[in-house]
Protein backbone atom coordinates (compact mmCIF):
# COMPACT_ATOMS: atom_id res chain seq x y z
CA UNK A 1 0.00 0.00 0.00
CA UNK A 2 1.19 3.51 -0.77
CA UNK A 3 1.41 6.27 1.77
CA UNK A 4 0.38 9.81 0.90
CA UNK A 5 1.03 12.54 3.42
CA UNK A 6 -1.12 15.65 3.67
CA UNK A 7 -0.88 18.53 6.09
CA UNK A 8 -3.90 20.25 7.56
CA UNK A 9 -2.21 23.54 8.19
CA UNK A 10 -4.95 25.72 9.72
CA UNK A 11 -5.12 25.66 13.49
CA UNK A 12 -8.26 23.94 14.77
CA UNK A 13 -10.04 26.36 17.06
CA UNK A 14 -11.25 25.63 20.57
CA UNK A 15 -14.26 23.35 20.91
CA UNK A 16 -17.54 25.28 20.80
CA UNK A 17 -20.31 23.08 19.39
CA UNK A 18 -22.61 21.25 21.75
CA UNK A 19 -23.75 18.50 19.36
CA UNK A 20 -21.59 15.43 18.77
CA UNK A 21 -21.60 13.52 15.46
CA UNK A 22 -21.62 9.71 15.49
CA UNK A 23 -18.58 8.06 13.97
CA UNK A 24 -18.99 5.95 10.83
CA UNK A 25 -16.72 3.27 9.42
CA UNK A 26 -15.06 3.65 6.04
CA UNK A 27 -17.06 2.32 3.10
CA UNK A 28 -15.55 -0.71 1.29
CA UNK A 29 -13.04 0.02 -1.48
CA UNK A 30 -14.18 -0.09 -5.08
CA UNK A 31 -14.08 -3.32 -7.07
CA UNK A 32 -10.51 -4.30 -7.89
CA UNK A 33 -9.07 -1.17 -6.29
CA UNK A 34 -5.98 -1.18 -4.12
CA UNK A 35 -6.00 0.41 -0.65
CA UNK A 36 -3.54 3.14 0.25
CA UNK A 37 -2.52 4.55 3.59
CA UNK A 38 -3.17 8.26 3.96
CA UNK A 39 -1.32 10.04 6.77
CA UNK A 40 -3.22 13.05 8.15
CA UNK A 41 -1.27 15.80 9.94
CA UNK A 42 -2.79 18.70 11.84
CA UNK A 43 -1.93 21.42 14.34
CA UNK A 44 -3.85 20.83 17.58
CA UNK A 45 -6.30 23.56 18.64
CA UNK A 46 -5.84 25.83 21.59
CA UNK A 47 -7.62 24.43 24.63
CA UNK A 48 -8.22 20.89 25.82
CA UNK A 49 -9.16 18.25 23.24
CA UNK A 50 -10.54 14.82 23.96
CA UNK A 51 -10.33 13.40 20.46
CA UNK A 52 -10.40 14.11 16.75
CA UNK A 53 -12.61 13.31 13.78
CA UNK A 54 -11.85 13.10 10.08
CA UNK A 55 -14.54 14.26 7.64
CA UNK A 56 -14.15 12.41 4.34
CA UNK A 57 -15.98 12.96 1.05
CA UNK A 58 -15.53 12.62 -2.69
CA UNK A 59 -16.54 16.20 -3.50
CA UNK A 60 -15.63 19.53 -1.92
CA UNK A 61 -17.38 20.11 1.43
CA UNK A 62 -19.66 17.09 0.91
CA UNK A 63 -18.55 14.65 3.60
CA UNK A 64 -20.26 11.28 3.44
CA UNK A 65 -18.03 9.67 6.09
CA UNK A 66 -17.14 10.90 9.56
CA UNK A 67 -14.36 8.85 11.11
CA UNK A 68 -13.69 9.07 14.83
CA UNK A 69 -9.92 9.06 15.25
CA UNK A 70 -10.26 8.94 19.03
CA UNK A 71 -7.56 10.18 21.33
CA UNK A 72 -4.46 10.97 19.28
CA UNK A 73 -1.19 11.59 21.17
CA UNK A 74 0.58 14.68 19.85
CA UNK A 75 4.08 13.99 18.53
CA UNK A 76 7.15 15.75 19.93
CA UNK A 77 7.07 18.21 17.02
CA UNK A 78 3.63 19.41 18.15
CA UNK A 79 1.77 17.78 15.24
CA UNK A 80 -1.14 15.35 15.49
CA UNK A 81 -1.04 12.39 13.12
CA UNK A 82 -3.41 9.59 12.18
CA UNK A 83 -3.63 7.11 9.31
CA UNK A 84 -6.66 6.38 7.14
CA UNK A 85 -6.91 3.53 4.65
CA UNK A 86 -8.69 4.70 1.49
CA UNK A 87 -9.45 3.56 -2.03
CA UNK A 88 -6.56 4.48 -4.33
CA UNK A 89 -8.87 4.92 -7.35
CA UNK A 90 -10.99 7.76 -5.86
CA UNK A 91 -10.56 11.47 -5.18
CA UNK A 92 -11.01 12.51 -1.54
CA UNK A 93 -11.67 15.76 0.27
CA UNK A 94 -10.74 15.65 3.95
CA UNK A 95 -11.00 17.95 6.94
CA UNK A 96 -10.35 17.43 10.65
CA UNK A 97 -12.12 18.59 13.82
CA UNK A 98 -11.39 18.31 17.54
CA UNK A 99 -13.92 17.52 20.27
CA UNK A 100 -14.19 17.35 24.04
CA UNK A 101 -16.93 17.30 26.69
CA UNK A 102 -18.09 20.78 25.65
CA UNK A 103 -18.56 20.09 21.98
CA UNK A 104 -16.76 20.03 18.65
CA UNK A 105 -14.57 22.60 16.94
CA UNK A 106 -15.21 23.98 13.46
CA UNK A 107 -13.55 22.02 10.66
CA UNK A 108 -9.99 22.69 9.63
CA UNK A 109 -9.05 23.70 6.11
CA UNK A 110 -10.01 21.08 3.53
CA UNK A 111 -7.41 19.03 1.73
CA UNK A 112 -7.88 17.40 -1.70
CA UNK A 113 -6.23 13.99 -2.18
CA UNK A 114 -6.25 13.04 -5.86
CA UNK A 115 -6.85 9.50 -7.07
CA UNK A 116 -3.77 7.50 -7.94
CA UNK A 117 -2.88 7.44 -11.62
CA UNK A 118 -2.68 3.69 -11.43
CA UNK A 119 -3.55 0.78 -9.21
CA UNK A 120 -0.60 -1.49 -8.37
CA UNK A 121 -2.82 -4.54 -8.81
CA UNK A 122 -3.39 -3.54 -12.44
CA UNK A 123 0.29 -2.99 -13.25
CA UNK A 124 1.35 -6.64 -13.35
CA UNK A 125 2.66 -7.32 -16.87
CA UNK A 126 3.11 -11.06 -16.11
CA UNK A 127 6.81 -10.84 -17.03
CA UNK A 128 9.29 -12.45 -14.66
CA UNK A 129 12.03 -9.97 -15.44
CA UNK A 130 10.31 -6.70 -14.60
CA UNK A 131 9.41 -5.14 -11.26
CA UNK A 132 5.93 -3.62 -11.59
CA UNK A 133 4.78 -0.62 -9.60
CA UNK A 134 2.96 2.71 -9.75
CA UNK A 135 4.96 5.80 -10.61
CA UNK A 136 4.02 9.50 -10.84
CA UNK A 137 2.88 9.01 -14.44
CA UNK A 138 1.23 5.59 -14.13
CA UNK A 139 2.44 2.00 -14.17
CA UNK A 140 6.16 1.33 -14.30
CA UNK A 141 7.92 -1.88 -15.37
CA UNK A 142 11.54 -1.70 -14.28
CA UNK A 143 13.89 -4.45 -15.55
CA UNK A 144 15.31 -6.55 -12.73
CA UNK A 145 19.12 -6.88 -12.54
CA UNK A 146 20.66 -8.85 -15.41
CA UNK A 147 21.49 -12.38 -14.35
CA UNK A 148 18.38 -12.80 -12.19
CA UNK A 149 17.09 -16.37 -12.49
CA UNK A 150 13.84 -17.00 -14.37
CA UNK A 151 12.04 -19.89 -16.09
CA UNK A 152 12.28 -19.73 -19.89
CA UNK A 153 9.33 -21.81 -21.09
CA UNK A 154 10.23 -25.47 -21.50
CA UNK A 155 13.82 -24.65 -20.56
CA UNK A 156 14.13 -25.00 -16.80
CA UNK A 157 17.04 -22.57 -16.76
CA UNK A 158 16.74 -18.94 -17.70
CA UNK A 159 18.29 -15.58 -16.87
CA UNK A 160 16.94 -12.06 -17.14
CA UNK A 161 18.66 -9.68 -19.56
CA UNK A 162 17.29 -6.21 -20.29
CA UNK A 163 13.93 -7.16 -18.81
CA UNK A 164 13.49 -10.36 -20.85
CA UNK A 165 13.88 -13.99 -19.75
CA UNK A 166 16.44 -15.70 -21.98
CA UNK A 167 17.11 -19.47 -22.07
CA UNK A 168 20.35 -20.44 -20.38
CA UNK A 169 22.45 -23.59 -20.14
CA UNK A 170 22.72 -23.20 -16.40
CA UNK A 171 22.05 -21.03 -13.41
CA UNK A 172 24.67 -22.70 -11.18
CA UNK A 173 27.79 -24.77 -11.80
CA UNK A 174 26.20 -28.04 -10.73
CA UNK A 175 23.98 -27.83 -13.83
CA UNK A 176 27.12 -28.16 -16.00
CA UNK A 177 28.58 -31.28 -14.39
CA UNK A 178 29.07 -33.98 -17.08
CA UNK A 179 29.97 -36.66 -14.53
CA UNK A 180 33.55 -36.93 -15.79
CA UNK A 181 36.06 -35.66 -13.24
CA UNK A 182 38.95 -36.20 -15.67
CA UNK A 183 38.05 -33.20 -17.81
CA UNK A 184 37.92 -30.87 -14.80
CA UNK A 185 35.13 -29.12 -12.90
CA UNK A 186 32.71 -27.38 -15.25
CA UNK A 187 31.39 -23.96 -14.23
CA UNK A 188 28.42 -21.72 -15.01
CA UNK A 189 29.28 -18.22 -16.21
CA UNK A 190 27.33 -15.08 -15.23
CA UNK A 191 25.74 -15.29 -18.69
CA UNK A 192 24.33 -18.76 -18.04
CA UNK A 193 26.83 -20.59 -20.28
CA UNK A 194 28.64 -23.75 -19.18
CA UNK A 195 32.42 -23.59 -19.31
CA UNK A 196 34.81 -26.53 -19.50
CA UNK A 197 37.12 -27.35 -16.62
CA UNK A 198 40.87 -28.00 -16.64
CA UNK A 199 41.54 -31.64 -17.59
CA UNK A 200 43.68 -33.79 -15.29
CA UNK A 201 47.12 -34.33 -16.84
CA UNK A 202 48.47 -37.85 -16.44
CA UNK A 203 51.73 -37.49 -18.36
CA UNK A 204 52.90 -38.58 -21.82
CA UNK A 205 52.35 -42.14 -23.10
CA UNK A 206 55.18 -44.69 -23.05
CA UNK A 207 55.95 -47.45 -25.54
CA UNK A 208 54.09 -50.10 -23.56
CA UNK A 209 51.70 -48.09 -21.37
CA UNK A 210 49.35 -45.15 -21.81
CA UNK A 211 48.53 -43.04 -18.71
CA UNK A 212 44.80 -42.41 -18.51
CA UNK A 213 42.40 -40.84 -16.02
CA UNK A 214 39.75 -42.88 -14.28
CA UNK A 215 36.52 -40.89 -14.98
CA UNK A 216 34.87 -42.13 -11.79
CA UNK A 217 37.63 -41.68 -9.23
CA UNK A 218 39.60 -38.94 -10.97
CA UNK A 219 42.93 -40.73 -10.60
CA UNK A 220 45.59 -41.44 -13.19
CA UNK A 221 46.32 -45.04 -14.02
CA UNK A 222 48.35 -46.84 -16.68
CA UNK A 223 46.76 -48.93 -19.39
CA UNK A 224 49.19 -51.49 -20.81
CA UNK A 225 49.61 -51.88 -24.53
CA UNK A 226 48.76 -55.39 -25.78
CA UNK A 227 51.52 -57.93 -25.22
CA UNK A 228 53.54 -58.32 -28.40
CA UNK A 229 53.37 -54.65 -29.37
CA UNK A 230 56.67 -53.65 -30.97
CA UNK A 231 58.89 -51.41 -28.85
CA UNK A 232 62.55 -50.58 -28.31
CA UNK A 233 64.15 -51.30 -24.98
CA UNK A 234 67.16 -49.15 -25.92
CA UNK A 235 69.71 -51.94 -25.57
CA UNK A 236 71.92 -53.13 -28.42
CA UNK A 237 72.26 -56.54 -26.82
CA UNK A 238 68.63 -57.45 -27.53
CA UNK A 239 66.47 -57.85 -30.57
CA UNK A 240 62.83 -58.43 -31.46
CA UNK A 241 61.72 -56.11 -28.64
CA UNK A 242 58.08 -56.53 -27.62
CA UNK A 243 55.80 -55.23 -24.90
CA UNK A 244 54.87 -57.63 -22.16
CA UNK A 245 52.88 -56.66 -19.05
CA UNK A 246 53.58 -53.00 -19.73
CA UNK A 247 57.34 -53.37 -20.11
CA UNK A 248 59.46 -53.48 -23.23
CA UNK A 249 61.58 -56.64 -23.38
CA UNK A 250 63.85 -57.98 -26.04
CA UNK A 251 65.61 -61.29 -26.78
CA UNK A 252 69.27 -61.32 -25.90
CA UNK A 253 71.49 -61.69 -28.95
CA UNK A 254 73.77 -64.70 -28.68
CA UNK A 255 77.38 -63.91 -29.39
Structure characterization notes:
The protein has 255 residues and is mainly β. It has three domains: 111 residues, Immunoglobulins (Immunoglobulin-like, Sandwich); 74 residues, no CATH class; 44 residues, no CATH class. Helices cover 0% and strands 41% of the residues. A hairpin with a 2-residue loop joins strand 8 and strand 9.
Précis, in short:
With 255 residues, the protein is mainly beta. The protein contains no helices and 18 strands.
Fold topology:
Elements: E1 3-8, E2 35-42, E3 51-59, E4 62-70, E5 80-87, E6 92-99, E7 111-113, E8 130-135, E9 138-143, E10 149-152, E11 155-161, E12 164-167, E13 187-188, E14 194-195, E15 209-213, E16 220-224, E17 238-244, E18 247-252
Parallel strand pairs: 1-2
Antiparallel strand pairs: 2-5, 3-4, 3-6, 6-7, 8-9, 10-11, 11-12, 13-14, 15-16, 17-18
Category from helices, strands and their pairing? mainly beta
Strand order, biggest sheet?
4-3-6-7
> Between the first and last Cα atoms, what is the distance in angstroms?
105 Å
The CATH topology of the largest domain, please? Immunoglobulin-like
Helix content: under 10%
Key attributes of the depicted protein:
Immunoglobulin-like, 41% strand, four-stranded antiparallel β-sheet
Amino acid sequence: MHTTQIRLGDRIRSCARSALVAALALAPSGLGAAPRDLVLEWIPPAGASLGYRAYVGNAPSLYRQIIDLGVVPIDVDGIGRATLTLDSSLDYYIAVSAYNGVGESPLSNEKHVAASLCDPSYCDDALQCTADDCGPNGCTHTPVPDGTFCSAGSNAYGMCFSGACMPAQCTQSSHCDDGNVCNGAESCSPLGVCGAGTPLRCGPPGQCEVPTCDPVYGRCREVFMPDGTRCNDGRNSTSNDRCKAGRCRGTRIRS
